[in-house]
Amino acid sequence: MSNIEEDIQQIDNTLDNESLIIDDSNIIDINKQNNYKVWKKNSKILYDYINTNNLKWPSLSVNCLPYHNKSTNDRWFMISSYTSNQLPEDEKVILTQIPTVNIPKSDLSCFEMENMEFQVLRNPDIENDKSTSVNKTNSEHIKEYKPQNLKNNIEIVFPSLEQCNRISINMNNPDLFATGSTKWGNVYIYDKTKCTTINSSVKNLMPSNYSIHLNGCSEMESVEVNCLEWNNMKKAELASGLSNGLLQLWDLNKIYKKDKTTYTEPSAVTIADDLGINDLSYIPDHDSLLGLGCETKYFQLFDSRSQNIVMSTLNKDDSKNGVNSVDFNQHDSNIVAVGCSDLNGQINVHDIRNIHNPILTFNHANSNVNEHISKDNSISKIQWNPFNPNILLSAGMDDGLVKIWDIVGENEYKERLLFTHGGHMLGITDCTWDLFDPWTVASCSFDNSMHIWKPSKRQIQEYYK
User: Fold this and answer.
1) Which segments constitute the Histone-binding protein RBBP4-like N-terminal domain (predicted)?
2) Which of 88, 153, 295, 383 sits in a 20 to 30 Å window from 461, CA-based?
3) pLDDT tens column, 315-373
């Protein structure tokens, strides 16, 4: 029996004897754990790179930062910890890094038994050291070289009794990032350069020392910030969408004063949907137009110059007017993808020049043939690939699947499923494309996991021609 087969057998025995003995009330049921076993067994042929991490708490947001160390190929991510008020002191926004030097050549044999996770060997030259490695098993390599996954660099304690829903990075100045709170419509803006790192000996800086506080709804504690995004065409404009339906635009250049940290008056405001705004997206090459995904009013287009809704449309199916995610195509700003909150996870692709008639409609739940995988799959996230204009990512809030689609056929718009990531056991909270590799994705789930993964070249061979 080969080393790989021995490792898989060892994993299976451990799962059979321990992991599958669960309380009946546990939401990660036997079927989900069996699906995870099957996925894990096949991971060596499914991926060119896979790195799995257990977080202490689930993260509702994940962002890839535009930092790139070419020598180590490190990736930097901004995530959060969501405790549901169980441990308020654990509510944090975390800047973490991972060395991905093994992309695209990673060792998928490195399954570390203690944490039951795939991990990356710290030393990239292991396979080149023939004299010491020839007689060693994968487990011995892991013990000797000590695998390294996410390495937290900054942990920012979130303001007391509040939790972080979303994070948005200012791509014009990546040291600035905004966080959306679960109370008072609060937005907190941090400057990374002014935050204490975990390894710092400087203790006089408060870890929750935000630079700017935008108070969006001081009269209602229950109002949450569901979404927020920086305007890449304006260096200091931030949009936030609230659970009470308010859209607020904050032009920091106009309102900022050196002796002030809290601001209560946005530069533009409108009520888009009384039941809430779930997502928003700026048109990539326009400095004043942004699309809104609403709870009951489907999709609307807001113009900050007139401070009005200038375009709106409803879904042709009245039962699918709730929208959880919207994203404009970076390569063709007229194209927008809309992910619905219905049970099938409907995805509509629109051309805003003819907004009322979608050019493509399909469901995230398509191709879910496993009887134990939920067919009720609201969309939690959709996102266009930053490198390929035809590639769209969709994530399920219930099935825990992240899917990659090609939405353009030979002569027409037609969806084609390219790849499904099935390593999460609960629904996806957020996911994002990597900014430096066309096929690498980071995804977070309610099961407290964060995965960084890249489909095997053999799975998408035609896109490497």
Assistant:
1) 35-98
2) 383
3) 988 889 999 999 999 999 999 999 999 988 999 999 999 999 999 999 998 877 666 56
Query: Which helix (H) or strand (E) element contains residue 46?
Result: helix 30-46
The answer to whether the beta carbons of residues 266 and 248 sit under 8 Å apart is yes
Confidence (pLDDT) at 17: 40
Q: Return the number of other C-beta atoms located less than 10 Å from residue 113's C-beta.
A: 12
DSSP state, residue 73: T
pLDDT at 277 (0 to 100): 98
Confidence at 116, pLDDT banded by 50, 70, 90: low
What pLDDT sits at residue 27? 72
Tracing tokens 């996954």 back to the chain, one arrives at 149
- pTM of the full structure: 0.85
Q: Rounded distance, CA 373 to CA 285, Å?
A: 39
Three-state SS string over 248-307 comes to: EEEEHHHHCCCCCCEECCCCEEEECCCCCEEEEEECCCCCCEEEEEECCCCEEEEECCCC
Tokens of 417: 């499923």
* Distance from chain centroid for Cα 399: 16
SS3 334: coil
